Amino acid sequence: MSIYSFSSAGGKVGRPKPKGNMKMENAIRILAGTMVLLSLALAHFVNHHWLWLAAFVGVNLIQSAITGFCPACNILRRLGVGRGQPGGDCCGPKCGE
């Protein structure tokens, strides 16, 4: 069955509708993972002190889980991530303040 016969039989053919903005929780995970991988690469190729960046990211994730305050959430919210998404707060009620 080709796409043309599917279309002529009444099937809908087209691009899927965009889902909108990324959820804040997913953006936080992508940012944290990118920073850890960047830290590991810089530690391997430049200087081992770049591992402190990975440690900082880990401590920040733990702190945000305990307190509900997430600095990365504040930055991403100002950049427009997570607007219009239901349940967009990733860390708790203080997320995005």
Distance between the termini: 53 Å
The biggest sheet amounts to: none
* Overall average pLDDT: 81
Strand content: under 5%
* Overall 3D form: elongated
The helix/strand series, from N terminus to C terminus, equals HHHH
- Please tally the helical runs, counting DSSP H or I stretches of 4 or more residues: 4
Report the count of strand segments: 0
* Radius of gyration (Å): 20 Å
Summarize, please.
With 97 residues, this protein is an all-alpha fold.
Task: Report on the architecture of this protein.
The chain is mainly α. It has a domain at 21-78. The chain contains four helices and no strands. The protein has helices at residues 3-8, 24-45, 51-67, 71-78. Helix 2 (24-45) runs antiparallel to helix 3. The mean pLDDT is 81.
Fill in the keyword field for this structure.
97 residues; 4 helices
Topology:
Layout: H1 3-8, H2 24-45, H3 51-67, H4 71-78
